[in-house]
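re the bet — no i am not wrong, look at it urself. input seq straight from the record:
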Amino acid sequence: MSDPSTDFERLLSDARQLSDSERDAHFRRLERRWQEEVGRHLLDVPHASAGSAAVFARQFQYVIDEIDLDRAGFLLEVGCGKGHFLAEVNAHCAPSGPTPIGVDLSRAVCDLPGRGLIGLRADGEALPFRDASVSCVVYDGALHHLIDFRAALRAAHRILEPGGKIIVFEPVSSPFTRFIHHLLDPIVFRKVVYESPIDQEYKDYFREQVITDALRELGMEPSSSRSDFLAYPLTGCYAGSAFGRSARLMKWLLAFEGGMRRVPGLRQLAAALSWRVLIVARKARTPREA
């Protein structure tokens, strides 16, 4: 049996000889296959070690803090994987609060019923929901997996109720993170291909400013904040690392990050070196607000 990593490296190389439209179609097919054969098996890695689990739990909390937990309706996570985030949301929701629903392209979504959650296998660029039927749409590290993420945001806005929120928690593409990726990826990928084909090919084009501009074009006024400049990259993310096994180390690093964010001069430095960005935008309640 051939090595899946070798197969994907060859297919990635082949795709770069295609035209733009052919390339996008090729990468959509490649992404779907990768998520089925590789990606869904990596989803438990950050939650299997005490240290990295603490870091990801804090990331979940950043997003949960922005959700209206008392607001009835449907809370949709696009790219939900096996439902780790939605299970945490479900534990925080008030009895009268939102009903979590997960959407994902891969079979990982089939794990959701076992967690007492609703899961739907569907494409994040063409969400199969009625207009104004969802109270909140969350992308927790999933929007950058969609080639036409502008179309995905338009679809999210369409299904969002007036006053509902789009919450985006995604990797930062900055000069610093791109430099680190270009430096380390050739070394890391020799051990494990933990980034999907779209991750590898399109991540340099996925910028915070592009996302906020797309939300403004929809009549929304987004706010953004950066986080995770130290502990998160040391976890190794979905590749795992020796650092991620130590709960004591990761909790100390998280506390250190929290202290830096409270000091004005250091806050700017932390933001410049951050690996994640949280973007929140609310849909206008009336046409006059748009």
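see?? Residues 7 and 13 are 10 Å apart (CA to CA). told u. also The mean pLDDT is 88. so pay up
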